[in-house]
Design goal:
The chain has three domains: about 170 residues, no CATH class; about 100 residues; about 160 residues, 2-Layer Sandwich (Heat Shock Protein 90), CATH 3.30.565. The chain has eleven helices and twelve strands. Pfam families: HATPase_c, HisKA.
């Protein structure tokens, strides 16, 4: 109970209400003491009027008047003359004098607290102003114990009333917290527990219903998170199914391509000049297809294989990509511009780097051909002390906004209708495997620019391979 939200609200409410009552209690007690003493002064003044009406009163009547006023004697000052109006024996010396004519609030509070704390039977003198201009000053002597008893009784009543108010207020707040906060929070927790049992089931996603704005915002945020998680789980399941299917297709395709490799051996022995010129390209294409199938099967088992690093000629790799893409363009007016030094060598995996450049160029070619306008794809290579850079630039229409937002996310960054968006994902993963980066430098209506950056440091390459 005490560890619950409503239970803690209950305890805190009682504490705060009692603290508030304490701040009210002290001034109230001080005011009660002031009223008590002023009442005794008024009674004493009324009793002294009997003496003015009849100068000679009996001792019994005087004692009765003092007893009714609850004082021992009364001194009334008129016209600067101090007159003992009524008197009786005082049982002990006077120990304190209180002036009630112009007391400050702090004085009243201090005197009230002293009266409550002091347990001795004291005789006190009280001075005040007579009512209705009945004189210049009135002074009485009285016992303090009845005053202390009245203060204690008054304070006890205030504390009991405060406790009652605290309990009623805390109970109302407890019920309010239960209805407005605890019950909706328990509903959210129940939704979360139900969703955790079957996160793939979209029916378990919470629907915001809370009337409290903060709780409604929390339910809305939870709904968005659950929707994203459910979508991610479904996509993960589809990817797993797709991976299994791709692995099966790659296995069969590898066997078919291996058979095709056997036929290329005889084709290379042909005396036809055209066949001799085209056969090496066919052999290279089939070999890459076989390697891709084997890599796909390896990816289905673990992850993209680590790059096999060696010294390769970048110009030759780019030339092979261009030759492959020219076959795909046919007679389409697409120009390839290669500005790569023929002597530039770098340390990389030639098969993986070919796939990266091929993916970038194929995307650029398809984007340009989709416009029906002539275009150009250019390659610019450079290097510095830290890395090698290859820039691939095209004059296509640029990437749409959705593709930019999900550029390197599988099945979300596709540009073409029906495209999977895997090309750039694979390319980025392969470059990261080399310890480098694949960045989108620019994309707009004038074209798109990608930059491949490969590090020269051995440590970066070793770390990436690991």
């Amino acid at each position: 109970m005490i560890n619950s939200l409503s239970g803690r609200f209950l305890v805190l409410t009682v504490i705060f209400v009692m603290l508030a009552e304490i701040f009210i209690f002290v001034p109230s007690v001080a005011r009660f003491r002031e009223d008590y003493l002023l009442t005794r002064l008024e009674r004493a003044q009324i009793a002294s009027l009997a003496l003015e009406a009849d100068d000679m009163i009996s001792p019994a009547l005087e004692a009765e008047l003092l007893r009714n006023a609850e004082v021992y004697n009364v001194v009334l000052r008129r016209d600067e003359i101090r007159q003992l109006a009524l008197s009786s024996p005082i049982p002990s010396p006077i120990t304190a004098t209180y002036d009630m004519r112009v007391p400050s609030s702090m004085t009243l509070i201090t005197d009230a607290l002293k009266t409550l704390v002091d347990t001795e039977d004291r005789i006190i003198r009280v001075i005040g102003n007579p009512v209705l201009d009945g004189g210049l000053l009135i002074e009485v002597t009285m016992d303090e114990m009845p005053l202390r008893a009245a203060l204690l009784d008054y304070g006890r009543n205030i504390l009991l009333l405060s406790a009652f108010i605290s309990i009623i207020t805390a109970s109302l707040l407890f019920l309010s917290v239960q209805i407005l906060l605890v019950r909706p929070i328990k509903g959210v927790v129940a939704h979360m527990q139900s969703y955790a049992k079957a996160p793939e089931d979209a029916r378990q996603i919470i629907t915001p219903t809370a009337g409290v704005r903060e709780l409604h915002d929390a339910e809305t945020s939870l709904q968005m998170m659950q929707q994203q998680l459910t979508g991610a789980l479904k996509q993960k399941e589809r990817l797993a199914q797709l991976g299994s299917a791709v692995a099966k297709v790659s296995h069969d395709l590898r066997n078919i391509l291996t058979s095709a490799q056997l036929f290329t051996d005889r084709i290379e022995a042909s005396d036809d000049p055209l066949v001799k010129r085209m056969a090496p390209k066919l052999v290279n294409s089939i070999s890459r297809a076989v390697n891709l199938c084997e890599s796909t099967l390896a990816f289905g088992r673990v992850d993209e294989p680590a790059p096999s690093l060696s010294r390769i000629n970048l110009s030759q790799i780019v030339g092979e990509v261009i030759d492959s893409e020219r076959l795909a363009t046919g007679d389409y007016p697409l120009t390839f511009v290669q500005n790569v030094p023929t002597t530039m060598t770098l340390r990389a995996d030639d098969e993986q780097l070919f796939r990266v450049i091929f993916n970038l160029v194929r995307n650029a070619r398809q984007a340009i051909m989709a416009t029906g306008e002539p275009g150009e794809i250019s390659f610019v290579a450079d290097e510095d002390d830290d890395s090698w850079q290859l820039t691939v630039e095209d004059t296509g229409p640029g990437l749409p906004q959705k593709a930019q937002e999900h550029l390197f996310q599988p099945f979300q960054g596709g540009v073409r209708k029906g495209g999977s968006g895997l090309g750039l994902v694979i390319a980025a993963d392969l470059i990261r495997g080399h310890g480098g980066r694949l960045d989108l430098q620019k994309t707009d209506g004038d074209g798109t620019v990608f930059m491949i950056r490969l590090p020269k440091e051995d440590a970066a390459l070793v770390s990436a391979a690991e």
